[in-house]
Amino acid sequence: MQARAKLICDMSGAVRIREFHIDDYDAAVRLWRRVEGVEIAEGDSREDLARYLLRNPGLSRVAEDGANMVGAALCGHDGRRGLIYHLAVEPAYQQQGLGRGLVEECLDALRPLGLKRVLILVAADNALGRSFWRRSGWEDIPGAVVMGIDLAESDDRDSELRDREEKKK
After folding, report:
1. Taking the model in full, what pTM does it have?
2. 69 beta partners
3. How many CB atoms lie within 10 A of CB 33?
4. Under a CB-based contact definition with an 8 Å cutoff, are residues 75 and 109 in contact?
5. What is the model's pLDDT at position 164?
6. Pick from 57, 63, 92: which is nearest to 75 by CA?
7. Which residues are CB-neighbours of 56 under 8 A, at least 6 positions away?
8. DSSP E strands: which ranges in 11-158?
9. Closest CA to 72 of 108, 30, 111
């Protein structure tokens, strides 16, 4: 996929949107920590994100004003559905269309892959985030509840169960 950059003009000049590279990791983490509603959790280490970017080349985006990262979005897919994570825009740059610009760039990158739907995860207590997504045309999925399991814990539980079964024999 050919790298491309998009310019969005705002009051401070031109903000450039381009592909997210692993070298952007530290600046992205600083941004995510400053933006309300973005949670950094397991799976967000530099190594995990490098693996994610390799699996989903050319899909994630950053926005820069000069040398400063002012927006970021992780974007990928599982072969059936697209997923957007960690959309964040520097508070001083919010309400200027930059979040929508990042999302549109992600969606434009996913469309050629033949995916029919894109999903996001928004914390139930993130009213600002939920409002943004709804204004942008996204919908709640009634009846859907996000669930998860940590693989290391799952492996530990499986090992404990096997040990118990062995002791019974």
Report:
1. 0.81
2. 64
3. 11
4. yes
5. 65
6. 57
7. 75, 76, 77
8. 13-19, 61-65, 68-77, 81-89, 117-120
9. 30
